[in-house]
């Protein structure tokens, strides 16, 4: 009798765990899950878009030294291989004179 009760409780828990349906799975059944192309960028104002473009231009002009070193190292195969093992800082320190001499 005890084992039958235990078995029925375990079966009920298994059914509850396997048959549970979250609301997240229902998101794909929405009527229109995608935004029309015409209205895709309307949630961002033109002022915010302009500000984001300006910030990106500033970031491109004022790159940190490690980013410049990394880009220079990415263009040089030996430096890139060395960087995969020892890191970009060590690779640039090793191949730095050669890379600066090229440009």
UniProtKB/TrEMBL annotation:
Name where it's found. Answer: Secreted
Extract one GO BP annotation from the record. Answer: cell differentiation
Answer yes or no on keyword tRNA processing: no
One GO MF annotation is: calcium ion binding
Stretch forming the signal peptide: 1-19
Quote the InterPro entries the UniProt record gives: BGLAP-like_C (IPR058704), GLA-like_dom_SF (IPR035972), GLA_domain (IPR000294), MGP (IPR027118)
Q: Give a Pfam family name.
A: BGLAP_C
| Gene Ontology cellular component list | extracellular matrix; extracellular region
Q: Where is the Gla domain?
A: 67-97
Q: Which domain of life is it from?
A: Eukaryota
Keywords per UniProt: Chondrogenesis, Developmental protein, Differentiation, Disulfide bond, Gamma-carboxyglutamic acid, Osteogenesis, Phosphoprotein, Secreted, Signal
The primary location reported for this protein is: secreted
Report the PANTHER family cross-referenced here: MATRIX GLA PROTEIN
* Similarity remark: Belongs to the osteocalcin/matrix Gla protein family.
What protein name is recorded for this chain?
A: Matrix Gla protein
Q: Which organism is it from?
A: Myotis lucifugus (Little brown bat)
Phylogenetic lineage: Eukaryota, Metazoa, Chordata, Craniata, Vertebrata
